[in-house]
Amino acid sequence: MKIVAVTDEHMNLMFQLVGVETLTIKDPDPEVFEEKFEELFEQEDLGIIIITEQLLMRHRDFLKEFKMKDKPIIVEVPKLIGPLKEEYFENFIKKYIGLAVGNV
C-alpha cells in the first residue's frame, strides 16, 4: 500500500525525506484541487492520504465524501507552524452547527 502526502511545499520536503510520495497543488482554484485529488483517489494501490488540516478545512465540502470511504484512509496533520487556533474550530462549529463551545 502506498502513502501520499498532499501538503504545502515545506511539508512536502519533510515527507519526501522519509520516503513518502508527495503531491503539491499550488493552484488556489478549487477545481484544480478537486481534479488532482480525484486522480489521486483513483490509484488502486493507495492506502493512506496525508493532508494538512488547512487544506482539509479549505476543501471540507469536497473532501467530506472521500473521508467516508474505507480506502484510502485520509489522515489530517497540522502544518509545521502548528495546528489551527482553537478559535477557528469554535467559529466553525458556531457557523455550521449553531452551538457555542465551552458554554455548557
Summarize the structure in words.
The structure is a single chain. With 104 residues, the protein is an alpha/beta fold. The chain has a single domain, classed as ATPase, V1 complex, subunit F (Rossmann fold), CATH 3.40.50. Helix content is 44%, strand content 19%. Strands 2-1-3-4 form a four-stranded parallel β-sheet. It is globular and about 40 Å long.
Question: What are the defining features of this structure?
Answer:
104 residues; alpha/beta; Rossmann fold; 5 helices; 4 strands
The CATH class designation is Alpha Beta
What is the CATH superfamily classification?
ATPase, V1 complex, subunit F
Quote the distance from N terminus to C terminus: 44 Å
User: What's the CATH topology label?
Assistant: Rossmann fold
List low-confidence stretches: none
What does the main sheet amount to? 4 strands, parallel
Elements, N to C (H/E): EHEHEHHEH
Topology, number of strands: 4
CATH architecture term = 3-Layer(aba) Sandwich
Query: Helix coverage percent of residues?
Result: 40-55%
**Structural class per helix/strand content?**
alpha/beta
What percentage of amino acids are in beta strands?
Answer: 15-25%
Write the layout of secondary structure elements.
Layout: E1 2-6, H1 9-17, E2 21-23, H2 30-41, E3 46-52, H3 53-58, H4 60-67, E4 73-77, H5 86-96
Brief summary of the model shown:
This protein is of the alpha/beta class. It has one domain: Rossmann fold, CATH 3.40.50.
